[in-house]
Amino acid sequence: MKNFIYLLLIGLVFTACKEEAPKDYVTFSGKITNQNSDSLLIRSRTVSKVIKVKADGTFSDTLKVEPGVFLVYDGAEQARVYLKNGYDLTMKLDTQSFDETINFEGEGAQASNYLAKKALLMEEILDVESWFELDEAAFNVKVKESNKTFKDLLDNTEDLDSLLIVSEQKDAVSLENQLLSMYKEKQGLMTLNGKESPEFVDYENYKGGSTSLADLKGKYVYIDIWATWCGPCLAEIPSLKAVEKEYHGKNIEFVSISVDDQSAHTKWRTMIEEKELGGMQLFAKNDRSFVTAYNVTGIPRFILIDPQGKVVKADAPRPSNPQLKKLFQSLEI
264 is in which domain, residue-wise? Predict the structure, then answer.
């Protein structure tokens, strides 16, 4: 009997001391209420994976990753998550209040919950459109204040992976440099306001024939510079369609100019049909003179021109920005 107990105890010791091999993959599961699609897309620079979502909103899958921040897309909505092999992460959210309800549980949840809080904070305090109206000294103060707020959030969040901390510190420097660069660019664009607008001539009109900017004099012209491959451009489409509907019949023309290469001409026409795009749809036909004159370095870019052909805003608010309607109201459109 003694020998049996001794062997049993030895067995227990070896069982207790036996280490399980660490998982070399992430388990990612959760539930989405009011899901936008039947799948999630997880992306980074090197990874792209589709995860199926069941009819009840639940999902579960695994993937092998290098540690880092990934984007998770549910339709047009997106969130940032931090993934690392060995994590067992559960995500829950309601798409009707996407950013406000997203929450993570399980191994590795701290990092993704931190990213969710940061996203809400950025939306709350980064009012860059109004900041661009400030003088340079006041703008710099705003940037420094916002960076301190983000740094405090990072410093006060416990149990973050060291790689994420380093990445966030680098991102803080990049964000500050990006904002300062944007400010200088916006200040340069402001010199166009009040002046005669650069022209575009004989751009192909989706409905037939060609259109030039001169043809549109007598109305305000709200121009959307976009391309079929541009994700942020496509994200603005629902808001643009809503604004077009609200101002239908007013003294304003909504003009979308595609800067796609000629090779994407068919794709441009197909997208207009499939997405039922409104307004006036024009194709630039590889002519870059108009976008160059407006120093367009990134899209979408929105431009507002008055009925006399003068620039109101060389970098007008996006359709999704409430400031656009305030601008229209100030002009009594």
Answer: 203-330
